[in-house]
TrEMBL record:
Name of this protein: Lysine-specific permease
Origin: domain of life: Bacteria
Keywords in alphabetical order: Amino-acid transport, Membrane, Transmembrane, Transmembrane helix, Transport
Transmembrane spans: 16-35, 42-63, 99-121, 127-145, 157-179, 199-220, 241-262, 287-311, 337-358, 364-384, 405-428, 440-458
Main location: membrane
Membrane topology: Multi-pass membrane protein
Subcellular location per the Swiss-Prot or TrEMBL entry: Membrane
Gene Ontology cellular-component terms listed: membrane
Residue ranges occupied by any Amino acid permease/ SLC12A domain in the UniProt entry: 20-468
Organism: Legionella parisiensis
Gene Ontology molecular function, alphabetical: amino acid transmembrane transporter activity
Length: 479
């Protein structure tokens, strides 16, 4: 206890190098490595690219808006604080709880998935053993220091980006005939009802998959609270978002569409061996392809769990700092780690994956699905916050030119992002509605996170009697 500092202050240890790499590779995970193939099978090549392109544009507007706020007033509370200051304290409260809870449960799901990946090499090994090992590693990464977390994420992101680059190079070699492989090329865009398989229904399905693939980009907003010189490092990191979207997602999907027809049954498997990336690498060496993609997906899983632990502990720390949870969770040690917030986040994650191992998994299944829409809810919160932030900034007579970073496309950007998020949430499980008979249970599971969020928001609003903050009363003082 002697090393605990009662002053609730984090330390700014994340420099431009780390933030830049995290921004580039932070959201590269199972969404692009696995879900992209499923999206292609549902929407065809044209529909998939259109869905990812629209979602990419939305994410660009969203992240530039978040960057504008984070560069001006960096805080580890991120969009939770911005929503509370520029729209409604109850909305901010609900966003904070929603995001912390979802992070804790998401860690459990990723840790459990890592155990399944390890069975590729050790088929007879214990899942409990691997879950314990990886959870311990993630706790250690986050407990050492903020800089240690940043360095781990830097190298994990570097590896993921390297694999994407290798994939793009490999794809071009296959497409332009530098190997014996006969690529379908644009013939794949004319198979069946391509390029837009299943029309708007297919595009909507790919839309949902694309949304999940981009989740995690909001990490930059939380990291701003512990970054060195956020007024300069955040704008630099945000400017990389466009290129990441263009190169790592759109170009990769375009290559996949030229090499693998959307009618391939291999695309609809969740098995890593059937990942579209694996299928492309297999043209050189099948054993090598399965092994390298298993390793990369394992690292991607660890990376997202590591990031979720970081974000979750900081969100809980800020909730405690604002008095929404016991003050003990706002305590940080001499290394600037919110140690009690980290501990509670770890405990919740531990209970979640243990319940799925020792029980029948029902409780864990409900908890996991309750968080499935949390990322989109957070994005809607960011869009609302940015719209109100700029509007209040102008109403109070401030000059936008004085902002460290000015997001382009206002007010279209946040309004467009809000609308896209609404579409994605509405179409989260459209298949349950069009099924015969209708899958009401599946529909309930998919949307359980929405009433949970609304209950927290409305409940806090009813108890605290909060109101929407007038633009002239919005506070722009930093943390």
């Amino acid at each position: 206890m002697h090393d605990l500092a009662q002053e609730s202050s984090l330390q700014r240890k994340l420099n431009a190098r780390i933030l830049g790499m995290i921004t580039l590779g932070g959201s590269i995970g199972t969404g692009i490595f696995l879900a992209s193939g499923n999206a292609l099978s549902m929407a065809g090549p044209g529909g998939t690219l259109l869905a990812y392109l629209i979602m990419g544009i939305m994410v660009y507007f969203l992240m530039t808006g978040l960057g504008e706020m984070a560069a001006y007033m960096p805080t580890s509370g991120s969009f939770y604080v911005y929503a509370a200051r520029f729209f409604d304290p109850s909305l901010g409260y609900a966003l904070g709880w929603n995001y912390w809870y979802s992070c804790a449960i998401y860690i459990a799901s990723e840790i459990s998935a890592s155990a399944l990946i390890m069975h590729f090499w050790f088929p007879e090994s214990s899942s409990f053993l691997w879950c314990s090992v990886f959870l311990f590693l993630i706790i250690v990464f986050n407990a050492i220091s903020t800089k240690a977390f940043g360095e781990v994420e830097y190298w994990l992101s570097f590896i993921k980006i390297s694999v994407i680059v290798l994939f793009i190079v490999t794809g071009f070699f296959l497409i332009f005939g530098f190997t014996d492989y006969k690529a379908g090329g644009f013939q794949n865009w004319r198979i069946g009802d391509a390029p837009f398989h299943s029309g708007w229904i297919g595009i909507l399905a790919a839309f949902v998959a694309a949304g999940f693939s981009f989740q995690g980009t909001e990490l930059i907003g939380v990291a701003a609270g512990e970054s060195v010189h956020p007024d300069t490092t955040i704008p630099k990191a945000i400017k990389m978002v466009f290129w990441r979207i263009l190169i790592f997602f759109i170009l990769s999907l375009f290559i996949i569409s030229l090499l693998i027809p959307y009618t391939s049954s291999q695309l609809i498997s969740s098995d890593v061996v059937m990942s579209p990336f694996t299928l492309v690498f297999q043209q050189y060496d099948k054993a090598f392809a399965a092994m390298i993609m298993n390793a990369v997906i394992l690292l991607a899983i660890i990376s997202t769990a590591n990031s979720s632990m970081y974000v979750g502990s900081r969100m809980l720390w800020h909730l405690a700092k604002e008095g929404h949870v016991p003050r003990i969770f706002s305590v940080v040690n001499q290394r600037g780690i919110p140690i009690y917030a980290l501990a509670l986040t770890s405990v919740v994650a531990m209970l979640a994956f243990l319940s799925s191992i020792f029980g029948n998994g029902t409780v864990y299944f409900w908890l996991l699905n309750a968080t499935s829409l949390s990322g989109f809810i957070a994005w809607m919160g960011i869009a609302i916050s940015h719209y109100r932030f700029r509007k209040a900034y102008l109403r109070q007579g401030k000059d936008p030119a004085q902002l460290p970073y000015l997001a382009r496309g206002y007010p279209f950007g946040p309004l467009f992002a809000f609308g896209v998020c609404m579409i994605v949430i509405s179409g989260q499980n459209y298949s349950a509605l069009i099924a015969t008979p209708k899958d009401w249970y599946g529909l309930l599971i998919s949307y359980s996170g929405v009433p949970l969020f609304l209950m927290i928001w409305i409940g806090h609003k009813w108890i605290k009697k909060t109101k929407i903050i007038p633009l002239h009363e919005c506070r722009f003082d930093c943390e």
